[in-house]
Predict the 3D structure of the following.
Amino acid sequence: MMDSQIHKIHQQLVDKKISCTALVQQKLNALKENTNNTVNSLLDDLALKLAAKVDVKIAKGDPIGLLEGIPFGIKDVYMLQGTYTTASSNLLKNYKSAYTATAIQKLLDAGAIPIVKENCDSFGHGSSSENTIFGAVKNANNPDLVGGGSSGGSAVNVAKEYTIFSIGGDTGGSVRQPAGYNHVYGLKPTYGRISRYGLMAYASSTDCVGPIAKSVEDIRIVLNAMSGKDVKDQTTYASAEITKDSILNSKSIKTIGYFKNFIENDAIDSKIKADFLIAIEKIKAKGIEVKELDFFKSDILVSTYYTLAMAETASNLSRLDGSNYGNRIEDKNLKESYAITRSENFSEETKRRIVGGNQVLSQGFSDEIYLKGLALRDAISENFENDFKEVDIILSPVTPNSPPKIGDSLKDPHAMYLSDAYTVGFSLGQLPTLTIPQGTETGLQITAAKNNDELVLKFANFLKDTI
Ligand code: GLN
């Protein structure tokens, strides 16, 4: 509670210790001056207009909601009507949203104030936030290192307190990994808990809306505000609100597990491995049983995820041909116009994925590759189901290594894909999973069975006092 930024600022607003306008202006200034490349566009006019309204309410003595007047950031892949929504791409550099994403609308309805569209890997394609036309996002703790990706700008803004919370998007780790790289909390909820309507589709079967914040309590508040069934996204489901008190008690958690082969592996940094095992010992010392679990090799997880993610993104991005939106380049005929529009306006990384995805889906290959990927995905999900018959929580590192230097990931895309080894499996399983800024240099990841988002938050609170 004490470390909740939202509760703290709410109280300051109610007590008139700070005006909402002053608060928003201060955050806008900090964003404007920031040297970490986190900003694609500032929402000054909208934010100050909304802040003035909150100030009027406070002056009149009207009650305000917990999220009312709280400034937040939005990864630049969410629609917010009238604002630039670029996906950090050349293709959509000048595109303005025609409507507002459900998740963002729910935050607006709760009175939260959007102040910035945040830098990220283009269309979510990346693990470092270097695949962007706005310049590489720099790590909050060391500007020579990457901010992580793809929601790098969002995680850095939270770490630097330029935003109170930010909304990232997580397809294969894009909320959890940058949260880990910048020492903040980042949640990928159960798939379907939050509507994807108005989130630019990367891989629709794993895309999740995810909050990034500085405390478990703030994650809880923002998660509740965004959750719910939405007729505009048929994969959504209704979920119960997670109460403040329910996540303070973790007595129901008796057994946890971890994947042996994530830890006994040549690819993991020796310090991350040692720190992870120290955390495990501290948990055991609290009387919790810890089981070693068997799982798929991380290279199989990575290849399955990238096979399916590339197939889905090739399909989703086929609509971006310059006809309806985006920077169209005219050529001698329609086909050539499509070709030049797409080849000039997509990044190298995005094109690599479109080409790879179309290969995966093409006649003569799809049985061998795409269908095999789907079968593996089913096997992965089944493995999780069996694990959660035995354990309440699965704990893992977030990444095998510490954040790379700026420039390194661009030189070696394959190494970048492999750095997602610990995050992508949980995405394929559509499980709720949270990065906490504790345990290893890039944090720990807490995962539970589907729809058990509450249990994840409970265990995060427990670990806060345990390790
Ligand atoms: N790094 C992973 C990828 O590039 C995950 C990205 C994401 O979650 N959007 O696919």
Observations:
- The first helix runs from residue 5 to 14.
- Residues 147 and 448 are 27 Å apart (CA to CA).
- The mean pLDDT is 97.
- The chain has 17 helices and eleven strands.
